[in-house]
Structure prediction request, 305 residues.
Amino acid sequence: MAVPIHFYINRYGLANLNDWDGNSIQINHNGGYILAPQMGAGVKNADNSFTGIVMGEVRRPNLPANIGLLGFAAGQRTLFLNSENGVAIFGKFQQSQITIDPSSNIGRLYSGDFWKKWNEETELPDSYNSNNESGSGLLIEFSEQPRIKFGNGVFDINGKTKTGTISGWKLTENAIQSNGGKITLNSAINNEFISVKNTNNQTVFRADQNGVSLTGSITTRDVNGDRTWIKMANGYLEGGKGSQTYTRLDFDADYQTLNRLVLWNWKGGIDIKYVSKNPDTTTEPDENRIMSVNSSRVLLKYFDA
Prediction:
């Protein structure tokens, strides 16, 4: 006669939990355990609402039961540690709620206002797609695709693609670019550069391996703003005080102005003229010539300015 042999697996490492039928209440003083479908501790308020903690199964009308650890404040659930999927929900539903969600391949932490639509049964977002984002709140994604995103798009960092945006500034692995591409900082090997564009999308400043190039002008002033200044632009360098220009080095012209003195390349020589007003060398009379040098003579003239 064959004798059956029965094998039992201690699945939970607790013999009493293996033996429990899931419905009855078991209390064992020697073993030091209490097993029940539901246990709670807390207080009943004057309006008969409950504030405290419940462990076990909590049924919901027309919805699947919550199984895990639940907290309530005046009858409203404020805490849920879901034993079925490991989700932890802190705060009142879709209000000041924070959810830690490891239920999918990407672990997430998000605020209750980040998503538009929610699944009433699971109490999780209806989908994790961008079209379900509400435009507010905060999302942090972990695992292989770390990401941090403010709902309004001010801050969005994707660790897998090594890209993101901060207040409109675009970030890549090798570059930072302002919204609209007016300013770019590129650190790519053999292509390092810094560039600045104007409102017409023209590059006015660029620094790269070949040096620094400038289109347009640069003006520096003292702290008062209306006194001495220096301006560098295409083809010339000039300086002055207030609204007056006193010194100008024009690289495209045949004359230079140095503090009311004009060095003028004229007829194969150099003339030095006194400038009596804001420089306009082409109209200064020859009588103001105080020195003339050419291949055949040197002329000096003194007059009372």
Notes: The longest strand covers residues 50-60. Residues 39-161 form one domain.
